Inverse folding.
């Protein structure tokens, strides 16, 4: 009888779960309703991934995945639009709070107005007139029919990647999502296989890795459109946040925030963020480039511009820091991308209700979108964004959270 019981226990999910955690194997215990993926390496704290059905869309499950480490950091993502829905991190006193804008339910993400945490593609930002050429052949993408961007292609089109249901699977320390963008979708040539991999580690580093391939030449510029507010749960706006960017140039824009093809030196301008600057200072400027991005603040405007990193070679480099003095929270951003587009929520008017019922208003968050430049397909001097058959698109961004007193 004793031998039989030992045999039963040996093959039980609880025993296998214990042995696998000790040995560092990946397991999915059958006894859990929500699947959990665990991985341990030496003394590294466990990173778990919890999967749950969060809602439904046209008869299919919308799933939410929560990544957690032993430091109390949690990141939640969903396969609807490959959104990042929350990032919970401690402040200088150990208080754990959510530091990104978003919503409380899957249905609200379906109806999202502002790309709050969305994966944007095929091509993020703007393409003038939705037109460009590939090897001498004209391509016409879908364009906005109304609003300030009327006549231009913006953030992948009317039904971009943020409005699609992605396929998802658990991986070690995270989740990977996949979407097949068919030939002709929003006017784009080629069947594009697109993946985004989200992972978390023991050092409070949240990594977003994009990869793609296509059977026809197509422009690709994938981003994670996360709005940060390091006060936690949107207690205050972002005007006291300090921002530093390792860039001495920005992409000059004209009406419609379309690039002119030229770069502007930031020295002596509100765009000089080469040392930490409280956002309220440059945003109060009357600079003409800021006025082009005016939304709710008709007197001044705001940031809706791309900073061009001083050092860019396609390798992962530290490029951006955002900090908030009261909470002490610090966000360092490392990326393989050539620039970061900074958007200060200039057009957020309170029409959207966010987490905990709080309205998403002017300056509620700041989006730090690591990316290639807008309209790159029409500016040969910009880094290339055309993906050709047989080539592999690969870009990574690491969001590293910490705090200081």
């Amino acid at each position: 009888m004793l031998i039989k019981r030992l045999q039963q226990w040996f093959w039980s999910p609880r025993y296998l779960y214990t042995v696998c955690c000790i040995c560092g194997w990946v397991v999915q215990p059958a006894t859990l309703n929500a699947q959990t993926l665990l991985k341990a390496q030496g003394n590294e704290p466990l990173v778990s991934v919890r999967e749950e059905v969060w809602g439904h869309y046209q008869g299919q499950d919308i799933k939410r995945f929560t990544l957690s480490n032993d430091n109390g950091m949690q990141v939640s993502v969903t396969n609807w639009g490959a959104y990042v829905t929350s990032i919970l991190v401690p402040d200088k006193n150990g208080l754990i709070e959510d530091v990104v804008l978003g919503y409380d339910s899957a249905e609200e993400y379906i109806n999202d107005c502002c790309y709050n945490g969305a994966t944007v593609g095929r091509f993020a930002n703007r393409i003038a007139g939705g037109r460009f050429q590939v090897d001498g052949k004209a391509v016409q993408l879908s364009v906005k029919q109304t609003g300030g961007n009327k006549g231009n292609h913006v953030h992948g089109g009317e039904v971009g990647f943020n409005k699609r249901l992605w396929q998802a699977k658990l991986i070690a320390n995270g989740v990977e999502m996949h979407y097949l963008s068919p030939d002709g979708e929003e006017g784009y040539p080629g069947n594009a296989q697109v993946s985004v991999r989200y992972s978390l580690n023991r050092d409070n580093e949240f990594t977003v890795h994009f990869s793609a391939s296509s059977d026809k030449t197509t422009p690709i510029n994938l981003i994670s459109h996360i709005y940060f507010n390091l006060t936690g749960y949107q207690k205050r706006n972002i005007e006291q946040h300090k921002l530093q960017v390792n860039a001495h140039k920005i992409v000059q824009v004209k009406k419609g925030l379309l690039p002119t093809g030229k770069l502007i030196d930031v020295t002596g301008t509100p765009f000089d963020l080469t040392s930490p600057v409280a956002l309220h200072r440059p945003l109060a400027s009357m600079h003409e480039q800021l006025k082009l991005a005016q939304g709710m603040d008709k007197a001044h405007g705001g940031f809706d511009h791309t900073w061009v990193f001083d050092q860019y070679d396609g390798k992962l480099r530290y490029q951006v820091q955002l900090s908030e003095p009261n909470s002490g929270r610090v966000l360092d951003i490392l990326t393989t991308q050539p620039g970061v587009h900074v958007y200060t929520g200039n057009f957020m008017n309170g029409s959207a209700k966010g987490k905990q019922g709080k309205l998403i208003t002017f300056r509620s968050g700041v989006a730090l979108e690591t990316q290639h430049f807008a309209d790159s397909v029409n500016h040969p001097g910009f880094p290339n964004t055309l993906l050709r058959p047989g080539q592999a698109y690969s870009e990574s961004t690491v969001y590293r959270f910490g705090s200081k007193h």
Summary: Residues 13-23 form the longest helix (11 residues).
